[in-house]
Amino acid sequence: MKVLIFGAGNLILSDEGFGVHFVKYMEEHYQVPENVELYDGGTLGIMVTHKFEEADKVFLVDIVDAPGNPGDIHRYTKEEIMLNRIPIKMSPHQIGIQEMLFISELRGACPADITFYGIVPASLDAGNKLSPPLQRGLGDIARLLVNELETTDVRIALK
């Protein structure tokens, strides 16, 4: 089984860069097996649809405009994403998440197993650092994702 961990975001808008910071966090703190790819999707959106189509299981990591406090984590399934049950778009790159999946569906190549971990941001101001709640969220989402993968016999170890 090929697993894709896809982080989206814009590194120059503080918490907006969370998904990209998350991929870097995983690279620094975890050893991933060969069948797991960590991918910095940045703000590429539909330009990287092919990455989804190459995987059997996809984890998307990004910020989300959802109820709660900064740092609160929300988990969405493919069905919830496809039925537009995730909250409103927050940034230009988010044209990617739903639209990428729709494009893959149209081509008959969308993976069946997709999970979106979204975290509520504290700041979208200019800057390249995460706010403290989102800095803490890096480890929180990493643990959730690693635990979820263990249920499918994919092991990711701490370095």
UniProtKB/TrEMBL annotation:
InterPro entries: Pept_HybD-like_dom_sf, Peptidase_A31. It comes from the Bacteria. Gene3D superfamilies: HybD-like. Keywords: Aspartyl protease, Hydrolase, Protease. Belongs to the peptidase A31 family. PANTHER family: HYDROGENASE 1 MATURATION PROTEASE, HYDROGENASE 2 MATURATION PROTEASE. NCBIfam families: hydrog_prot (TIGR00072). This is HyaD/HybD family hydrogenase maturation endopeptidase.
